[in-house]
Design brief:
Blueprint (H helix, E strand, L loop, with lengths): L1 E4 L5 H12 L3 E6 L2 H15 L3 E5 L5 H9 L10 E4 L15 H29 L3 E5 L12 H21 L5 E7 L6 H5 L4 H7 L8 H12 L9 E4 L13
Parallel strand pairs: 1-2, 1-4, 2-3, 4-5, 5-6, 6-7
Helix pairs in contact: 1-8, 3-4, 4-5
The chain binds NADPH dihydro-nicotinamide-adenine-dinucleotide phosphate and 2-hydroxyethylsulfonic acid (8X3).
The site of NADPH dihydro-nicotinamide-adenine-dinucleotide phosphate (NDP) has 30 residues, from helix 1, helix 4 and helix 6.
């Protein structure tokens, strides 16, 4: 079995790579940070004796996506699972004060990047007559919170695309699912606040957030249901979080 995981250099994607490796999957791991991909590859090969292909590319660049996917050798082409995980929030501010470059980064990564990868990989899955696409959305794709405007919009788009892809790929026997997490402690908030680690730390202060492993286990569980079962959508929250804004601290 083969899984391709985007954004495997950190957080949820990295934990998902470890979870699938634990269950014997061979992996295609992707991200922009080459060194991290190389480190993860050697750890996975050493610890789990699986085959790993690293593909270093930026999901925002359609040519890079196409070239990387076209370079996949035939022994890695029978992709069973695609985890569309690469994504980010950039900034947290009102619409009137939002930074255009933050908006473009989120739209280009979370929507367009996910689309580019999906287009190319779904074509391979259609040829193979099998596959499962698991999209990582968010509670931000189900609700909108103050200052979350554009990030929430991109995750609402992922929610819509998850539903749309499921319709389009139904005749080809390809499953489409989404995992929508609440707060997960990863590098997410460091990225959101442009590297401000102190501010990021405060997001998770005095709470027990989800761990990336919790999401990874859920993704693997979805992927390992019997052939006749598809989990369309899961919303998974830390126990201390009732919705986007109600958090017990
Ligand atoms: P991290 O910042 O820890 O990981 C993000 C991953 O995405 C990294 O591996 C990064 O790799 C990759 N990535 C980002 N931009 C690009 C790009 N342009 N091209 C290729 N890869 C990219 O955050 P998380 O693990 O938390 O985030 C993973 C997903 O989970 C995201 O879609 C996020 O929106 C979603 N999510 C996160 C939640 C949270 O609270 N943490 C809650 C709900 C959803 P690299 O930098 O090497 O390119
Ligand atoms: C990440 C969760 O609540 O910061 O998608 O938007 S939240």
């Amino acid at each position: 079995m083969i899984a391709l995981i985007t954004g495997a250099t950190s957080g949820i994607g990295k934990s998902t790579a470890l979870e699938f490796a634990k269950h014997g999957y061979n992996l295609i791991i992707t991200g922009r940070r080459q060194e991290r991909l190389a480190e993860l590859k050697s750890a996975l090969v050493k610890d789990f004796k699986i085959n790993v292909l690293e593909l270093c590319f930026d999901v925002r660049d359609e040519k890079q996506v196409a070239d990387a996917i076209n370079s996949i050798p035939s022994d890695f082409k029978a992709i069973d699972v695609l985890v569309n995980n690469a994504g980010l929030a950039a900034g947290l501010s009102t619409i009137q004060d939002g930074k255009i470059n933050h908006w473009e980064q989120m739209i280009d990564t979370n929507i367009k990047g996910l689309l580019y990868v999906t287009k190319h990989i779904s074509q391979i899955m259609i040829q193979n007559k099998k596959g499962h696409i698991i999209n990582i959305g968010s509670i931000a794709g189900k609700e909108v919170y103050a200052n979350g405007n554009v990030y929430c919009a991109t995750k609402h788009a992922v929610d819509a695309l998850n539903k749309g892809m499921r319709i389009d790929l139904l005749p080809h026997g390809i499953k489409v699912s989404a995992v929508n997490p609440g707060m997960v402690e990863t590098e997410f908030s460091i990225v959101r606040f442009d590297g401000d680690e102190e501010r990021a730390k405060k997001v998770y202060e005095n709470i027990v957030p989800l761990k990336p492993e919790d999401i990874a286990e859920t993704i693997y569980w979805m992927a390992s249901r019997p052939a006749h079962v598809n989990i369309n959508d899961i919303l998974i929250m830390p126990t201390i979080q009732a919705n986007s804004t109600t958090v017990l601290r």
